[in-house]
Design goal:
This protein is of the alpha+beta class and 151 residues long. 19% of the residues lie in helices and 43% in strands. The chain has 2 helices and 7 strands; from the N terminus they run βαββββββα. It has helices at 16-23, 113-133, and strands at 4-12, 37-41, 44-50, 58-69, 73-79, 83-94, 97-109. A 7-stranded antiparallel sheet has the order 1-7-6-5-4-3-2. A hairpin with a 2-residue loop joins strand 2 (37-41) and strand 3 (44-50). It is globular.
């Protein structure tokens, strides 16, 4: 399977600079992304992320960060035995906060479920990011997902 593109986004009531500071610090992910594990292999990051489903599942991949746009986003090249492609975080100021976009471009996937699992794992992380920056207690579900608040 190849040529699969997906976009997901979440509104975070925090300025883009604050969202970027947390998101661009890959080694810091385990501090706020429940269940995330991050290691290093030279310039590559080894990420192991939980997939929020009713069955415990994880995805693991190597990420090479590139295309850094200070304060507004970055790209990472994704390599694993299950999936290869590119992920892009792009931050857009919106009202009193930020829309955090994640775009996944898959070049190769072992099966059609792999891009979906990757998307779910990143979505779980985006919700954790939202909870962290909006001061929610751990375990409280994020509700304000989508293209901004209804104010």
């Amino acid at each position: 399977m190849g040529g699969w593109v997906s976009e997901d986004d979440v509104y975070v009531k925090a300025p883009p600079t604050e969202v970027y500071r947390v998101l661009a610090d890959l080694p810091g992910y385990p501090g706020w992304w429940k269940g995330a594990r991050v290691g290093r292999q030279g310039e590559l990051f080894l990420l192991s992320l939980p997939v929020p489903t009713f069955l415990p599942r994880r995805i693991s991949f190597l990420a090479r960060v590139h295309g850094v746009r200070e304060g507004t986003g970055f790209l990472w090249e994704i390599t694993s035995s299950h999936l290869s492609g590119e992920g892009e975080f792009w931050l857009e100021r919106y009202r009193s906060g930020t829309i955090c976009h994640y775009i996944l471009r898959v070049e190769r996937a072992r099966n059609p479920r792999e891009p979906v699992r990757h998307r779910w794992a990143v979505r779980g992380g985006l919700n954790s990011l939202k909870d962290l920056l909006e001061g929610r207690a751990e375990g409280v579900e994020s509700l304000g997902v989508g293209h901004g608040p209804k104010d």
